[in-house]
C-alpha cells in the first residue's frame, strides 16, 4: 500500500523518497496522535507555514559558528520579530502554540523568554491572588516585563528547606526585606536571570517575628523598567558558559536588605496580614507547584528532544550507504543493518511512549490547578508529585541515552555540530539535573511507594491509589503469547517484588536500630530501582492504553508494531530481575528476543515516516544531516565552507606561530 504523504517530493534524495513511498500510514494522521488532536496538529503546520513566510525569521548564519553573545543577540532579535507577529501567528495565551513557536524559531539553545513562559507566568497563574494577577499577569503576558524563576542558590538546589535567602517581614513598614546573608545564599542558575529579566519570582525563607516559615514565592522587580539597570540593593549577572543552552543567560542574584511591599508575597494560598499574622496554605507544598508544572511537561518535552535527534539519525541512515549485503553491485542503506535498527528503533518507541505520558501528565496538572484554585482541593497533589518525580527522572535518563545512540548511529558526521545532535544532547541532559536532580526525585517517588507497601503490609490495600494497586497482585504464571496484558502482568510482578524488597531492607535496618533517615540512605539504591520499575510500568501501560484508543486502522497497526517492540525491549532490559526471582524462564527470554528481532523488521519500512510524522521543519531541526530533502553531502560541504576558519586561506595563527616555528626548525 502506498500513501500520498505530503512529505514526498521528487526533488528529494531518491533514497528518502523511496522510504516515504513504502509507508503504510498517513503522516498527517500520525501527527494527530502525536500532538493529541487533529486541531493542534493542523495548527502546528499552519504556524510553521506562517513562520516560513516571514523572511526575518529564516536562519542566516549557522548557530554553531556564533559566539555566545551572538547567540543571545540573535535569540533576542528573533523574539522581537516574533513579538511583532505574535497575534497573527498564534492564539494569544495558548501555551502549546507559544512553545511550538519558540521551538521552531529559536531552537534548542535557550532564550531570554524560556523561563518567562515556562515558570514565571505559570507561577503567577497558580500562586498569585486575583488582585495580584490583575497587577502582573496581563503585563507579563503582553511581554511588557520579562520574568524568571529564582530558587536555586550557590549552596543549595535539591534541599529547599535549607535555602538561605531570607524575606523578613517588617510590620512597621509593611514590607519584606530580602537579604542574601552568605555567599552560598546567592541565587545561582536561574535561566534568563543574568541579563534579560527585569522581574523574578524569588523563593525565599519567609521570616516573621524571628520565626521561619520556609520557602515562599515573592515577585520582585530586579531592574529599572526604563534603563534596565539593576535596582539599588540588587547584584545580578550571568554565571558563564554551560555545556549547552548557551543562548540563555542563567544568572546569579544577591540582595542587600532589599525592600519589597507586603503585596509582593504571592498570596493565593497563604497570607501575611499587615500585623504579621500568617495564614497557612491548604497544603504545605503548594508553593512548589511551578516545579510540578514543569515536571509534568518534561515527558513531552524530552520526548520531542529525542524525536529531533531520531529524525536526524533515521533520515541520515536512509541516505547513508556503506557496505554490502547480498547484492554486491550497490552498497546498502545503513538503516538496513539490524544493529542500526536495534540502536534506533527502541528509542523511536520510547519517544512515542514518553509523548503519550506527557499528554496525560500535562492534563493532570491542568486539572490539579483547577481543583486547587477553584475548590481548594489539594487531594491530587501527592499522587501527581510522585508520578512526575519518577517520570522526569526515567524519561530524562533514557532520552540522554537515546540521543547519544542517535549521534553514534550517524558515524563521524554525527560528531560534527552540523548534525546538531550534540546541542540537542546537551540541552536534553540538563533535564537530568533541573527540576530536581534525578536521584533526589527517584527517592521522592520511592517515598510514595514505600508508604503504599506499608499500607499493604498493614492490611489496608483499599487505601491504595489506582497507580499502586498492582502491589496487591498475586504471583501468577503468564503466557506471553496472549499479548500486551501478559507483559504488563510480568512487569507488575517485577516492580512489586522490587518495591517490597526495598521496603523490607529499609525496615530491616530500622529494626536493627538505625533511624529511618539512616536506614533510608542505606536502602537508597534499592529504592531508586523500585521507583524506576514503577515508573516504567506506568509508561508501558500508558503506551498500551493510547494505542488501544486509536481509531485509524493503519496508524494503529504501525503503532502496534512499535508497542510490541517496546514491550519486548523493556522486558528484556529488566530480565535480570525476572530471572533472579523466577518470574520468567529462559525459554520465555528466548521468545522475547525473537519477538524483538521480528519487530525490528516490521518497523523498518515505516521508520522514516514514523519520524517524519513529527513534522519538524528544517528551520527547527537546524541539522545538515537531518534535512527533509536528504541532500546531505553537498550541504555538509557548504556548511564547512561557511566556517569562520575558512574565510581566509592563511590564518593569523599560522603567520604568527606556526610559520616562525617551522622556520626556526629549519635552522
Ligand atoms: C522545562 C520544561 C519546559 C520546557 C519547555 C520546552 C520548550 C521548548 C522550547 C524551546 C526549546 C528551548 C530549549 C529548552 C528549554 C528548556 C527550558 C529549561 C527550563 C529549565 C527550568 C529549570 C527550572 C528549575 O530547575 S527550578 C528549580 C528546581 N528545583 C528543584 O526541583 C528542587 C528539588 N527539590 C525539591 O523539590 C524538594 O526539596 C524536595 C521535593 C526534594 C523535598 O522537599 P521538602 O524537603 O520540602 O519535603 P520532604 O522531602 O520533607 O517531603 C515532605 C512531604 O512533602 C511531599 N512533597 C514534596 N514536594 C511535593 C510537591 N511538590 N507536591 C506534593 N507533595 C510534595 C513529599 O513527598 C513528602 O511527602 P510524605 O508523604 O512522604 O511525607
Ligand atoms: C540548565 C539548568 C537550568 C536551571 N534553571 C534553573 C532555574 O531556572 N531556576 C532555578 O531556581 N534553578 C535552576 N537550575 C538549578 C537546578 O534546579 C538545580 O541544579 C537542581 O535542582 C539540582 O540541585 P543541585 O545543583 O543543588 O544539586 P545537588 O543536590 O548538589 O546534587 C549533587 C549530587 O548530590 C546528590 N544528592 C543531593 N541530595 C541528595 C539526597 N537527598 N539524596 C541522595 N542524593 C542526593 C545528587 O543526586 C547529585 O548526585 C537550573 C539548572 C540547570 C543545569
From TrEMBL:
Domain spans labelled Acyl-CoA oxidase C-terminal: 484-663
Cellular location(s): Peroxisome
InterPro entries on file: ACOX_C_alpha1, Acyl-CoA_ox_N, Acyl-CoA_Oxase/DH_mid-dom_sf, Acyl-CoA_oxidase, Acyl-CoA_oxidase_C, AcylCo_DH-like_C, AcylCoA_DH/ox_N_sf, AcylCoA_DH/oxidase_NM_dom_sf
Sequence ranges assigned to domain Acyl-coenzyme A oxidase N-terminal in this UniProt record: 26-146
A GO molecular function held by the record: FAD binding
SUPFAM superfamilies (UniProt xref): Acyl-CoA dehydrogenase C-terminal domain-like, Acyl-CoA dehydrogenase NM domain-like
Pathway given in the UniProt record: Lipid metabolism; peroxisomal fatty acid beta-oxidation
Listed GO CC annotations: peroxisome
GO biological process entries: ascaroside biosynthetic process; fatty acid beta-oxidation using acyl-CoA oxidase; lipid homeostasis
Boundaries of every Acyl-CoA oxidase C-alpha1 domain copy: 288-450
Domain of life from the UniProt record: Eukaryota
Catalytic site: 435 (proton acceptor)
Cofactor requirement: FAD
Gene3D superfamilies with a match to the protein in the record: Acyl-CoA dehydrogenase/oxidase, N-terminal domain, Butyryl-CoA Dehydrogenase, subunit A, domain 2, Butyryl-CoA Dehydrogenase, subunit A, domain 3
Family, as annotated: Belongs to the acyl-CoA oxidase family.
Record's protein name: Acyl-coenzyme A oxidase
